Amino acid sequence: MHATRGRSLLARVARELATTRAVTLVAVNEPAPSGVDAVDLDEVFAEWHLADDGVWERDAARVIAVDAARRVLLVGAGTDDPERARWFTPGGGLEPGESERAAAARELFEESGLVVPADELVGPVAVRDAEFTYFGRPCRQHEALFYARVDGATPVRTDGWTAVERAAVADIAWWDLGELATTTTTIYPPLLVSLATELIEHGWDGVTRTID
Which of 29, 48, 102, 191 is most buried as measured by Cβ atoms within 10 A of its Cβ? Predict the structure, then answer.
């Protein structure tokens, strides 16, 4: 997600939508409902470049954050419609000159309020290429996934969300591994449960896996 700070807009939106759960927001590829300010697409795609095949492309970093209760932190989009809902690990695009590790730590903090120093992130434990529609445009994202254990208090907050993030996602929540293993809701990456279980039970073996 784009990291440009819309401080004044964030402050107003945070006052109006002061909650960390079930906030009604815009799904990734839906038009903005009335009452929600339009998002500047130049701002949305500032980190992206248009590839020769007409697909918008960027590098990104994500975090598989797990707490002491073996829950995984996920961000949700389209959560008001179970058939369209999708949940994914916190993360977003790299800023110019930023490393994958630094971006992962920054994005985790911005999207959840959780502070994990970049040098304490494990990995990258996996890499993947994701293709999806984002604000109506075809996109391809090259993702590096890191692992973080969060063993203290794990409340999350959304007051660090940018205007773009508030327009793209609707919720953030801790998911129990058992719940993730049985849900029919779309989860990204699809191998998240097995990957998180392996990391929790055995740690990282030093191999960066390529996953779907």
Answer: 48
**What 8-state DSSP symbol labels residue 193?**
H
* Cis bond upstream, residue 117 (ω within 30): no
Residue 2 is assigned to a structural domain of this protein: no
The pLDDT value recorded for residue 42 is 86
**For position 33, what pLDDT does the model report?**
28
User: Which two three-digit tokens encode residue 189?
Assistant: 């990456």
Task: Please return the burial class of 210, using the count of CB atoms within 10 Å of its CB with bins 0-12, 13-18 and 19+.
Answer: exposed
Q: How far apart are CA 4 and CA 177, in angstroms?
A: 33
Report the percent of the chain where pLDDT is more than 70.
81
Do 55 and 140 meet the contact criterion of CB atoms below 8 Å apart? yes
Q: Look up the domain containing 147 and give its range.
A: 7-202
pLDDT at 74: 96
